[in-house]
Hints:
By secondary structure, chain A is mainly beta.
Amino acid sequence: MSDGDTTYPPRDLASHPPALHEAYGSTKARAPSLAPVVVPHTLSELTGPRLGLDRHEAIDADLTRNAVRNGAPLGERIVVTGRVMDEGERPVPDALVEVWQCNAAGRYHHPGDQHDAPIDPNFSGAGSCVSDADGRYRFTTLKPAAYPWGNHPNAWRPAHIHFSLFGPATLTRLITQMYFPGDPLLPLDPIFMSTPAGARDRLVAAYDHDVTMPGHALGYRFDIVLRGRRATPGEG
Amino acid sequence: MARETPSQTIGPFFHEALIRPGENILAGDDTAGARIVVEGRITDGDGAPVGDALVELWQANAAGRYAHATDARAEVPLDAAFTGYGRGRTDGDGVFRFETIKPGPVPGPGNSLQAPHLNLVIFARGLLNHLTTRLYFEDEAANETDPVLNLVDEARRGTLIAQRRERGGQTVYRLDIRLQGAGETVFLEA
Ligand SMILES: [Fe+2]
């Protein structure tokens, strides 16, 4: 079945944050003030880059190993896995999934991160993989920590992993963040809370004891739904 | 029916995972088409440079075909030396830059033809959702009848049209992007 069989109803705006969310200070000067111009779906919108296996190596799905220099990175090992699917709950195979996160002390491998927490020389926090025929992806990593930021006094981001996904078309492009269940910082975080109330829980992974690897790593499940609905002959 | 996973900001710390050197260069030695440089500066509502943006480019090849299964027009050639995808970051001055080829025209709704254009997607700290826009070329007569440009107020159309100049033997198209306020760029929702 080709990608041409996918239909794209209007973007589900109730699922996404508004452009301007005053509590998240960086939106104030960066959010466009005018509504976007609605355009038809031409080939420019219905196509998009097919990035995949050529972009990454298998080891990049294991962030505890892909940046090792002189030993194992420090922190709590976890497995994060889930399905990439469309709005019709059909799998999205061959989707490039890229992730990045801070280390187990709350510090990013990034010159712009000046937080006074140790850098881990064996952890870059960057990884990638490609979803399989059932839309499944899987990473091994370290549990990221909370970290402070300058948004407001005593502001802390809840632990999170950044996700970037390419589905079949430009219309399915998504960058999001995955959070951890039960985190007391979630209701205090203006980025998480910018998401409409009915949609927020979709950003929180579930602890899954079936994913947990005995003696090795706790398991979390995070399913990702991209825009679009694959049609089958005779449907609709 | 599943509901979409909400968008969240890319934040300021994506470079280690998403930026690879040279990925803003789309045209190789064997790519067909007229070489161009595309550049611009992204500024916010205060006029300050946006130095931590990710810019993605998606375009058709010189013949006007996208390297994607949905563009199945066998009569328009693919170019094995061109994927049509590029990715780059803005520097401290908010400037992004791509080296690519000028795309051909692609079909629009009905029997219309779209003027040559680049599709741009912008991510940055402070953008909870990514922004989509297009870059058109000032020296294309087809802009007059482009079905998307004609959906845009005439007074704002210029925010989508890059200006051409020659610089050191290169053809440079420049399009500055203003996220907010005076001269705000037209963003698109498909
Ligand atoms: Fe972060």
